[in-house]
Amino acid sequence: MEDARANGLLCYCRPGFEPELAAELGERAANAGDAGWARAERNTGFVQFFTGQGHALAQALPLRDLIFARQKLRLLAELRGLDAKDRITPIIAALFERAAFGDLVVEHPDSDEARPLAGLARSFGNALRPALRKAGLLTPTVDADQPRLHVCFLTGDHALLATGHPRDASPWPAGIPRLRTPPDAPSRSALKLDEALLVLLTPDERARWLQPGMRAADLGAAPGGWTWVLARNGLHVTAIDNGPLREHVLDTGLVEHLRADGFRWSPAKPLDWMVCDMVESPKRVASRMAEWFREGWCRHAIFNLKLPMKKRWDETRDCLALFEAQSQRPLRIRAKQLYHDREEITVFAMVAPH
After folding, report:
1. Which residues pair with 75 in a beta bridge?
2. Of these four, 13, 38, 270, 286, which has the most CB atoms within 10 Å of its CB?
3. Host domain of residue 239
């Protein structure tokens, strides 16, 4: 069995986007003055990034700034050759003399190959938790202010130990918020906007910026999934699409449907929100979104950029730079590839306060 102390990061991502995450980590690390290197294999759902700066790199690459990472953890150890009869002893040995963690998460990457490990993760977590407490490595009750211990099974005898700080790690196992499609949602795409509001905005921001009576536009609205989410939050929505909306979306009394082109229509007066999930080239969408901010047509926006099959990190970086430059005003921008996204990223932007 091997206990290799690791000095780096463990990040989870959408399977198939490991090269994009590795490229993003490498570029951001280089910009922070650290020439780290990535270990990534396509369709595994995770990337390891090693560095000579350790904790300093973790601080220089906060999760909120990473686009392709669902979760970001600090690597502690890699354990190979674990005996199925006793996986607990080597884990405790690898954590020797560490301060007590506030919680334990036993998980696996979100990949087809690792998904059968779900049962092991559940049962092993139940066995490991009391053993860690007995060894003084886990607080008697959950302490949300302390770093969490993550045990990530790659196979039944191969695990990564990592830690996540509550202020710089996703609160959800594997970084995935488990949302269910409401029975009256017009389409599954409603989950994309629900997740964007949950992940890209803080609870305080949602309370302040999504208030009943605010006004919004949904560009490319049909069949009405994103419009429905906004109306459910009490916003008055102008839904722009030449296609039809589901009847019950219009029945809310908060929605006006205009049969128009989302790339041409503009509001008569500024709106609180604009959202857009149109299927179009990412640079064209980014340019159109910039026009909305340049002209002062909205204060906040959430939109998706559909990525090409190749050079997706380059396209992401270029589109965000184009959007920021063409808006011609200071913006706050957050971007993430969400769990409910596919070949796309979701962007939140707002006019930066003076």
Report:
1. 162
2. 13
3. 190-351
160 and 99 inside one domain: yes
Adjacent-strand bridge partners of 71: 12
Give per-residue pLDDT as tens, 265-320.
999 999 999 999 999 999 999 999 999 999 999 999 999 999 998 999 999 999 99
Percent of the chain with pLDDT over 90: 82
Which residues make Cβ contacts (< 8 Å) with residue 99, sequence separation at least 6?
none
Distance of CA 102 to the CA centre of its chain: 23
CA gap 153, 312 in Å, rounded: 28
pLDDT band for position 1 (50/70/90)?
A: very low
Set 85, 269, 283, 306: catalytic member: 306
Both structure tokens of 206: 């949602």
- For residues 143 and 198, state if they share a domain: no
Neighbours of 37 (CB within 10 A): 13
Q: How many residues does the chain have?
A: 354
**Distance, CA of 186 to CA of 295 (rounded, Å):** 31
CA pair distance 278, 300, nearest whole angstrom: 17
Annotated active-site residue 269? The verdict is: no
What are the residues whose beta carbons fall under 8 Å from the beta carbon of 210, sequence distance 6 or more?
197, 233, 234, 235
